[in-house]
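#dry-run=false #mode=assembly
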Amino acid sequence: MSTQQAEPESQEAPEDPEMKGAESPAAEEQKGGGMVEEHAEKEAELEGETVHIKVFRYDPEVADKQEPRFDDFHVPFTKGMTVLDSVMYARDEYDSSLTFRHSCRQAVCGSDAFFVNGKQRLGCKTQISDLEQPVRIEPLPHQEVVKDLVVDMDHFYDQMHAVEPYFQDEDTPETDALEEQRQSPENREKIKMSSRCIWCGACMSSCNIAAGDNEYLGPAAINKAYKFAMDDREGEEIKEHRLRILEQEHGVWRCQTQFSCTEVCPKDIPLTEHIQELKREAVKKNLKFW
Amino acid sequence: MSQSYNRGLIEDFGRWKEFSAGMWAWIFHKFTGWMLIGYLFTHIAVLSTSIGAAGNEAAIMAESDVYTTTLQGLEGLFLIRLLEVGLLAVAVFHILNGLRLLMVDLGVGLEAQDKSFYASLVLTGAITVASVPTFLTGVSL
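#status=ok
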């Protein structure tokens, strides 16, 4: 493996005609006409140019890469190119040992959250023309780096599972009496945003508190718990059980409303709002007038 | 979470330029909170030594009361007046951001939390500037 260290800086790749057709369906946000225009302007500027990316490299198993470093790549720009496209190009054309997770390329699978220019972003959802060059691409902070851009997600998944992220029912009826469990449109609307989580871990990585307190559930897990705690179809007892998990020392009360998670969430989930609502629920549950 | 590699200043204040409004609000709130606690204890220490002069009008008038003369001497210093302005700024920001946090806790206007932070900053600045004439009258440099 260690012999395959290419010198990416010196390579100037010819434009691959096949790459143009296989453009990734980047989930481009079109919030207003002005933004689109501005974006198109930036894109036109980059036409025919190369984009300069600096990618974090580290591999404890390869002698050459045990000392972490940044590799420079110059990737030919194509219209609509995302950060993920650029690292994929770098991997395919310059250095096949460049490692990162990706799958769906359309902000659904949540595997390609990177630390891009100092912010947690989804690689497939971030247009490279919107970023300042050189684009610095690093693995998510506050998680152990396994290799290059790949981080260890075990702890994140542990926290997610700790809140029992599945529907629970107190008294499931007999098999022959099973019925569809309908949710009211209003209730569905209430939990809509929380159900959009793709487990990418960007919020957890951005959270200052989660970085310092390993036991803190973190925004993603609390949001997941919100989705079920606010679901009317679950009984009162189950909701109380959920709140018992959340109201513990390392649960909702660790949140200091820094809004970092809400800021970085690629699915625009109002994480802080959900955490605050659960705090109020926890207080209400314990409030007694006697 | 120990990390054996160095990716630049990711874990600390070295990336302060990338902090967002909510993060700054948190930092300022903690900072002003500690300042006010520090002031509170100094305040208690100062006030508790003033009891000797209480009610003794004649001693104060004759300028033989050490406490009163010391304080009057201090208040004559430009630096102390400046610190008074600073104390006001710290207290005003802490109050305004505290109100903002109260709104956040109640779930009111969370999508405008950055704007309310900027508003509390601007208001703090305005009140501080407006207080300067009052605080700096009759002071010798």
